[in-house]
Fold these 2 entries.
Entry 1:
Amino acid sequence: MSAEVGAEMGVSLPGAGWRRADGAPAQRREGRRRRRAGDDPGVSMVEEAEFTSYYGRPVIKPPVWKQPDVPAYLFLGGAAGTSAMLGALADMTHRPALGIAAHRVAAGGALASVGFLIHDLGRPERFLNMLRVLKVTSPLSVGSWVLAPFSALTTATAGAQLLGWFPRLRRVTGAVAAVLGGPMTTYTAVLLANTSVPSWHEPHRELPYLFAGSAAAGGGALCTVFTPVDEAAPARRLAIAGAAVELAMTHRVEHGHGLVSEPYRIGRAGLLLRTARASTAAGTGLLLATGRRRWGAVAGGALVAAGSALTRFGVFDAGMTSAKDPKYTVEPQRERARAREAASSPGEERAGG
Amino acid sequence: MTSISSLSSAFTGDDPGNRLFGPVPDVVGQSTSDADHPARVGFFTDTSVCIGCKACEVACKEWNTLPMDGADGRVDVLGLTGESYDNTGMLGANSWRHVAFVEQSRAVDLPMPTVGRPGDVGSPRPLAEPPVVHAEVPASATTAEQTAPQQTQSGDREIRWLMSSDVCKHCTHAGCLDVCPTGSLFRTEYGSVVVQEDICNGCGYCVPACPYGVIDQREDDGRVFKCTLCYDRLTDGLMPACATACPTESIQFGDLDELQARADARLAALQADGVEGARLYGRDESDGVGGVGAFFLLLDEPEVYGLPPDPVVTTRDLPSMWRHAAAGAAMAFGLALSAFAGHRR
Ligand code: SF4
């Protein structure tokens, strides 16, 4: 019936030919809003011809998470996780200097990570409500239950080591912390991926490996910086291997997902990730060539650690870009819906044109 | 609240009760052991009869004592957007109903396809240029106006004004509820999704988790707020404030199955009248969020109203994400272990 009416009126355009009557002013307004939000001018403007939106407003709510709190929390938590592994393994293989450095990096990273997490809460005084329930459907709940014992154990280990207390017990706490260090490196990837933010959700299969690699690079690099070169070899190797994984996975996230990969390459996120790549690559090169000398270890380690941190800031920023521009939400969903419609009713025109 | 044991099967691959994704016949029964809970209630918002009066917005603000906010959700700001009559802008912490206004026009094939201004016969106005809508609306009703609501003809163009009162969808699989780490968000006995403000610690996770961009953090407060489906009124046997205030029954409140039947009938009637583009949004229980408790009759694509065309609760992919996270953690371990192999220096 409705198809008939459409044919009668001679309308064959998509959406029965309806267009927003005030398209142009709405786009100008959008330009203002973007700049006010402090967005990068490099972000491409919405093309009204490609897709429809409600006055260019975002469909989903961009995360209210603050910078640098959340990206710093991602970086520090991950680096602390791999440092705890290095610490426990150093204890087992009798590398006291590496053990001291790694346990301290783990404890410092964990505490700072907790601090950033609490500071980002809207009601920081209620942070203990995080431990009110345990929900597997909430990566933040699972993460809190990993982060809380992890930070307690790493702090206890490093503290006991500093004071020379409980030499046996602190090996046990260090080992348990190392086990928790595994999930510490990846739960934050699930935390971001399990949102409606297109550029975080779409690469949900890659992000855990990207974060694990980045955590290995960050933790290994920080421990390389703080450990005398005689004992720093494992930290250096971890940093190099982690950096390789981080570079490879970042490349896949930046290119593997069509439109929603775009935010990783443009604007501030693109700049951050390009800087991260240069820093990580230069640092890795330095570690490989001169990592057995103190200055080479310090410079290379610092560069790789900076690359790891910048990667997290870049990933965070790309997600924000994709959340603020409705095209990243609407276009892939529209495509999906169209494909499903085509599959379910082959050859049939949609009613109303 | 959902216990871990009852969820474990969902995370090991098969999910017979559709705990994470898919249609759920009894969404309340999924989160309570109480067999005789009330029926699931919801809203059916029929946008074809919305007149854009914003009575729902006002009633909601009044009843829930929501602070004044501008079109970007900031408290105590008054702002005119210029986006038609919409100065509310969006749903958020302080606006739990939001009436969208969309002004549209389209060219129609008439015998004389162009219209010139009086006097300038030589330069007909190109069809692509939209007419001044308000000045040229003819008083007489056209055929289009009789068959399609919110639509009229103006010269060589048809114009229409879409209005739609948006609200939290009270999803069957609610992303906000799934990701809330404190248990502040919960499923009520009526099937609605509500924030317990005395527990919320403002972590903000629900904000990007919602596929509809509904829930938001109140800036000066730190906690998140959204529509409660007037939980306080329901427990006292009253209708939600917005549905009570709506003068055209565009917002209908009731038991969800009854609303769904009514919506199906309304859609069939509109289609029989030849109304183009009428469709139900959120009615389909096999959609990405398992159907919603507050669904809509729309006259155009969802994205025209600022709604996502194919929303999916991301928890659907969470089991796979956890598996990849476990593999990633194992990889980190492997890297650390192998770093200790080989030369000591
Ligand atoms: S629409 Fe958004 S806020 Fe409302 S129940 Fe669904 S996920 Fe939660």
Entry 2:
Amino acid sequence: MRREDGAHQGERRFALMLTAPGMLALLLTTTFPLAYLVWSSFQTINLAMPFMDGFAGVQNYVEMWHDSRYWHAMGLTGIYTFSSVALQVVIGMGLALLVMQIPAGQWIFRIVAILPIVLAPVVVGLFWRTLMLAPNFGMVDFLVQWLGFEQINWLGAPTPALISVIAIHTWQWTPFAFLVFLASLASLPGDVYEAARIDRANALQRFWHITLPLLRPAIIIVIIMRVMISLSAFAAIFAATGGGPGTASEILNLYAFKTSFVELNFGYGSALAVSLLIITMAVSGVLFYLRTPRRREAGA
Amino acid sequence: MAQGRVHLKGIYKRFGNFIALKHIDLDIQPVEFFALLGPSGSGKTTTLRMIAGLDTPDEGVIEVDGEDVTFAPPADRDIAMVFQNYALYPHMTVRDNIAFPLKMDKMPKAEIEPAVVRAAERVDIAHLLHRRPGQLSGGQQQRCALARAIVRQPKLFLLDEPLSNLDAQLRLQTRVELKKLQRALNVTAIYVTHDQEEAMTLADRMAVFLEGDILQVGTPDEVFNRPASIAVAAFIGSPPMNLLPATLDGDRLTVSGHSMTLPRAPQHPGGEVTMGVRPSHVRIDPQGLPTRLYLSENLGESALLNLYLGDELVKMRVASFNAGAEGETVPIAFDIDTIHLFESGSGRRIPLAGE
Ligand SMILES: Nc1ncnc2c1ncn2[C@@H]1O[C@H](COP(=O)(O)OP(=O)(O)OP(=O)(O)O)[C@@H](O)[C@H]1O
Ligand SMILES: [Mg+2]
């Protein structure tokens, strides 16, 4: 017993030694900057007015509370996240169900689906800005005019700009949802569907009563991952619209970035970033809570 | 009017290069309890799946009540089915599993609950309604699948080895219950099993499958007492009948140098044949054929002697166990009116005159 414990302890020490460098790197690159971020959010650090620097207490947060641009950014973040994730899930699910019907050659779709995912978001943003949405030259514009509609300045007018950045994000990340759903669909038990066909469930009822509940874990995982990423989306929007026109597509992350690195108001920028962090954590917390299915223990 | 006549005509099914069914013909009567009996891999499930509409044959026609349903979807066939591996809905409670066919039938909610409870009580799982399939034992899952099938009144009742996972006692009990249920519901039941005792006790008629072929169709009595071929004879009975080489000359049958006169003339020109006799029809006779005792098996209510008649193993059922000395000589004889004759080449049964 005792010898075993000793061996166990030795093992543990060894494991610690092995992981220590990684832990240290993690500590230095995540925990430390995070702590620094929180610390600076309680300071006034403004490179434009260095003479004002010093401890500010909750001053930054109070200012944020009264900042209409902050609430605007917050609203945009909500719209952006909700609509892009909803679109990803719905379109991804639809595509996965469609591809499942194809008896052979599903691998082609898997490979095609990976392409947008592996592109860097900046590239995606620029690609859409120059190739697809540019006035007169962009493919979308070309299509819209060809269909006989009026020309729309996709990235230059407020509402189209927001729609565009949502579309870009959806375009890049729907394949992720698609791939997860496709894999989950392929692993569903076939005989259960046969039982449902015998029990006279039609295709829609089979989807609603069998597929959807069985895919629930996959759907929730996709939502959690995509919401967390959407909340902190940055590069693609930055490349496509830079948050504009004006603040029309300026989600919270972009506002924090601009405050810190364009206006050089680090203290306030940090407070904005911290608020985004808190929102992200709260939302993921709720989603993780929803993930654990609460059993309805009827009777007994 | 009684419904549920199932007619299979020339059903042929291939999986890749493998021929699973070779021109199956079956005519199952309304309200009949019909068993598909055969060893593993003989094509029973494949046949049932085509009757259900889950698979389609490569050739042939399936008719239900005179209507061609060969390519009709399962929903149009008004069937209930118990799957060999249960196929319960894993995310639903037992209650929701059993209720599912009723919900799809748009039965009013108030009527569903009592129907579910009644079905669950019939198979003894009323106390498990709140559980999920993952929280049930194999036998309980099987009974849940059974309850889901009997909760509706379908035209056809398809069961794929529905008792295979129950313990011996529960199997006997459920077997009786199943038979009574089928009588009460007054529906055609098609029942797949590899357990011949089950087929014998449950079925009005049965089909014996082997390697994608039907060897014989008949009542349990016919199949047991008049097996159509050596293959059926070698499959039915536990243990199955002894098959020994013999010579036929007119109505004289010679086995291992011992001659007997058949009660009636066989319809066969004579020569080499195969004689079959059930272990229970072998008896000890001091004037009989000398055999050597190889092993004596105790079966509880009876015992089984393994004897060697020359190089041929003969099994004999005796009333009580007596571990005789191995190598001891046991003289045996066969009751002449209990023996079966088969053509050695084709394996077909040789009928006696008047049969
Ligand atoms: N989808 C399939 N693909 C290829 N071969 C199959 C398929 N389904 C069945 N088979 C083959 O067809 C033959 C008959 O199968 P089937 O399931 O009908 O047997 P069974 O009589 O029900 O046997 P068991 O008692 O073991 O359930 C088997 O040899 C099996 O391997
Ligand atoms: Mg089977």
